[in-house]
Amino acid sequence: MAGAVSIVPFEERHHAACTAILGALPDWFGIPESNTAYLQGLRELPAFVAVRDGDVVGFASLRPHFERSAELEVMAVRPDQHRSGIGRALVLHCEAWLRARGFAVLHVKTLAPSHPDPFYARTRAFYLALGFEPVFETPALWGPENPALVSVKLLSRS
User: CB count, 10 Å around CB of 136?
Assistant: First the structure.
């Protein structure tokens, strides 16, 4: 059985493993320019990696937009580790990190349900199961061929 997962702050030494994870997920991360931006964001934004048995198996970054709201900008888990609790652990860690700093809202953008992509159907189900609520769909962010769904989770009511 695999060991426990630890969530730790991103460090430069994790960059190659995070790059490899994105490369292993072409059905979700198939736009090279976006991948480059996500990987740069790991260096500039609050970012975390999931480590199991000494290996980076997932990562996430947060983009604060306003004083009390932030976006889960990217989250990726190694394909051989899907459905093992790593994504959930990353999201819960991000939520706790944001709450500790007074944030009240976390949002995430995914490919919208009007697009037939089966991989993003799984992604939307994942976020829904974690308490994110779909708010709106728009072609304005990524174009009509890639409509975006914005989902929100309230972190606090204060």
Answer: 10
Token reading at 71:
């976006």
Query: For the chain, what are the domain ranges?
Result: 5-154
Q: With 70 as the cut, is the pLDDT of residue 1 above it?
A: no
Residue 110: strand, helix, or coil: strand
pLDDT tens sequence across 112-148: 999 989 889 999 999 999 999 999 999 999 889 999 9
Residue type, 14: H
CA distance 24 to 22: 5
SS3 for 51? strand
5-154 folds as Aminopeptidase (3.40.630)
Between vectors from CA 150 to CA 145 and to CA 152, what angle results, nearest 5°? 165
Question: Which tokens in the block code for residue 101?
Answer: 């700093």
Secondary structure class of 155 (helix, strand, coil): coil
